[in-house]
Amino acid sequence: MACLLQDKERAAWLLGYCERNLPPALAAEVERHLAVCPDCARTVEAQQKVWAALDVWEPPQVSPNFNARLYARIEQEEVQPWWRAVLPDARVWTWKPAMPLAAACLAVLAVALFRAPSMPEPGPKAQADSIDVEQVERTLHDLEMLQQLGPSNSDKV
Amino acid sequence: MKRLFAILVLVAAFLAPAVLAAQPGMQRGPHRPKGRPGGPQGLRMVERLNSMPADERSRVLGDLPPKRRAELERGLERYQKLSPEERENLSRRFRNFQELSPERRQAMREAFRRLNDLPDTRRRAIRREMTDLRQLTPESRQSRMASDEFKEKFSAEEREIMDDLARGIPEE
Amino acid sequence: MAGVEQDMAASLALSRAVLDAGVLERDAELMLQVRAGDQRSFALLLERHRAPVIHFLYRMVQNQAVAEELAQEVFLRVYRSRETYEPTAKFTTWLFRIATRLALNWIRDTKNEKTQESLDEEILEGGPQRQVADTNPSVEQRMVRSARLAEVRRAIETLPDKQRAAVLMHKYEELEYSQIAQILECSESAVKSLLFRAYETLRAKLAHMNV
Fold first, then answer.
1. Is the pTM of this model over 0.80?
2. Is A37 domain-assigned?
């Protein structure tokens, strides 16, 4: 086998060898080659050092308000009236139109506050409907993970 | 009087949208997941599903694609087979898990996925090591994981997996 | 027009074939649910992919605040595209394609303005917040770690943009060549070239480090 560094396709085998994801037959062939090719052997050693060096670089933690900011931006886009996209600088807010709007809000608030919301206890159908299947899936996955990582499962694969 | 009325109107205008949004059926916006994903509600939902009659459970899960449904039902079956004591222990560990930050929980999930991608022998070695690490205090655990002997036994990737998993070990 | 219709029909047929085969990946399923109006699926996708996208962008632009801004834009674009989403590629391929384009655009647009300020600030602050199992390092150890980190970051920064993206996706996100090729919109052979040259450069700059 000629030196693997001579072309990029074969040089990729060296990377694959370092990552331990070559098919066994090819890995064995590369290993035999490394025993007789000092350049390739040096490259493998150097590549492993590079990866170890790159491992030092840990990213910072994500800001705790990342999601909130994203959702705020999404909401802002959603509530924007259609004409705002066309006329972003249009000014429609004046004090006078706000008065009826504010009065309407007051009326709605009054209705909401004084309404007697005697919600009946949800029946079985409603209870079943309130099951969030995605959440159940995630919970089961987490439970499985915690169970496998538990103290009595060290030898279970 | 006029000033008082204006103030009342402004307060109402300010509060009305919040009150309206709280009314059932008037939720808007894309971003209100109910509670934390997989939070304590998640466990209650699992238990509720488990205790449902078969036909009702079938109705709840009916819309799921077959593969997902089969996986979910396998998960429920595994949970059902636990003894009361095992279930109590697991529930306690789950509640502790929920106390972690979302980022920490996600890091643990990803570490667990990477762990399962490792060859069997390495996975077993890591699990055995994790068993020992669980017995240590956080300080001793960190000290052991920083030792040269530890670094020789485990690759950088394996150490990172264990670091992510170890940080999820609660103070028991 | 006939050509467009044929393309759409082919795309739809592919989507159906993938769906029928039952091999639709989980993320694509979730995105289809977002398309159908399920907002919780978007929240789930965000939770699954937020960290890898931000970490990738952080290493590309080497500034956490910028990385988070770009990541916000990535997920905004995903959300905006929900109604026309078709699972013609892996979800992560699509996600990282958006992220890579935004990062490359940002790097190109700020090339002349870029200073070492953000890099040096973080070094002075003692490096990234996340440490790997290191308890009470001494001042000397911290300085050594900071120096190593600075060297790694500079080495990555000197790589041409596409080589940098390929290395980061290959090393840190552990993506396959085929996926990197789709993300960078080039052939697998081109990806191997990029990685070959990138790692050659990095070996020259970093192989002396004993970590």
1. no
2. yes
